[in-house]
Each structure stands twice: as structure tokens, then as C-alpha cells.
Design a protein that fits this description.
single chain; two-stranded antiparallel sheet; 7 helices; about 30% helix; about 20% strand
Length: about 270
Amino acid sequence: MELVNTHCHTGFCGHAEGSVQEYVDEAARAGISTLAFTDHFPLSAAFDPDDYLSVLRKDMDAYRAAVMAAREATPQMEILFGVEMDYLGALEDRAFDQAELDSFDVILGSVHFVDGWPFDDPAQRDRWDEPGAVDGIWRRYGELWCEAASDGALRFDIMSHPDLAKKFGYLPSFDLSALYDQMADAARAGGRMIELNTSGAYYACAEPFPAPDLLRAFARAGVPCTVGTDAHAPANVARDIEKGYRLMKAAGYNCVTVPARGGERRSIPLDL
């Protein structure tokens, strides 16, 4: 079956490794037909003081050039030029250029910050252990995620790793069913896709993003779903894609939705 990966990061991000070409070479060996490069859109010094999380503004042209060169050299593969863009809510401090946003084939929307705190950063996870913190963090994360997913004015094509708040294995005391339904409604209202992100299985939560029940909620709501490995090294570019397809099928999806250039989408039947 055709393999697609719509989420990966290269050495242009401070916390990933490998060149664009190394990713393409590994993807070709794995039989991937569509590969989206989605390095993190530049953050300000207030959010990325160590130049670790996102592409440096001065390197964006080089990032684009590397992806375009790989596309030209590898016509047999659909290579998409994209970014992962953090939703910062009321703390947004960047000015966006519409022409630049329009140059991307795909933009992933993500929530890594809860009111300025990078909740999934291992170096700053102490707040999770404060008394009563887990429930509050989950509720605020859900609010921010639904804001991002439902706002049609934001240039997000795919909402990535929808339940990232579980990364370190912290789960709230309350039933998540209502939040899952709210997230599914928000994604549908915003016309978003979501991704089955296979990387979650390699964190403390020990399962892909989203959880099976949340994935089923998205399927019931008719929210299109794609698959991304969220690779931060070329060796992981194809990791668990087929497993992701099986999880989608079990959740009620009959096809994988794949972004294409020009804002188009295509579907691959889940004939498993």
C-alpha cells in the first residue's frame, strides 16, 4: 500500500538532525510516495531563547532551497514544502507575511505552549508535578487546541499530534470523552485535517497521538486524517506508517487523506 509521511523535521531545527536529502533517500528506500517537510516556523526569542525549537529566521531561505532542490531531483516522490506552526494564542508576538505563508504547501498547526510554558519540554516538566496541576493543564491545553483548530482565519491545514498533553504519561482525573468531542467538533468547524502521529508510541504515553478514543471521535465527526511520523532523524522517516493505517481503520476511517500542492487533497483507500 502507498506510504505517506506528512510530518518530519531536519537539522534546520535545533532539536532535529539530518539533511533534507538524507530524509529523501531514506523515504525512497522505504517506498514513501509523499513526504512533507515541516520544520518549525521561526519563534521569537521570547519563546525560543536558545534557538533550539524552531528554524532560525536567517535559515528559512536555505530550508526552502534544500526542499526545492530535493523535489527537482526526485520527481518520482511528491515532496511538500511545509512548516509546523505553534499556536500561541493571546501571546502571539510574530508578524506574518501572507506571501510567505502562501509559499508553503502545507502548514501543521500545533500547541506546544500553555500560556507561554512549553509543557512538553523535558527540561521544563516540573510544573506537571505540582499539586492539582494535571487537570488544569489538560483543560487549558484543550481550550487552546480547540481555539486553534476552529479558527478559520488561521492558516493551519493539519492539526498535529492532537493530544500531545499526554506525552509524559500524565492523564487527568476527569473523563476525557467530553473534551474529545469538543476537539472533534473544533476540527470539523475549522475545516482542518488531523494526523495520526506515530511518534507518541516512543514517549512515556506509549501510544500514538491521538489516543484511540480521540481518533474515533474525529472519525465520527468526519474529520479527515493523514499520517505523520514526526521524525527528528532520517532513520525514523517511515516508522510505523502502516501501523498508523491499521489504527485509522480500526477507528472507523476508510481512507488516508493526503495534502498536495496548491491546497489540494487526495485520498488513499485503506485496503488492509
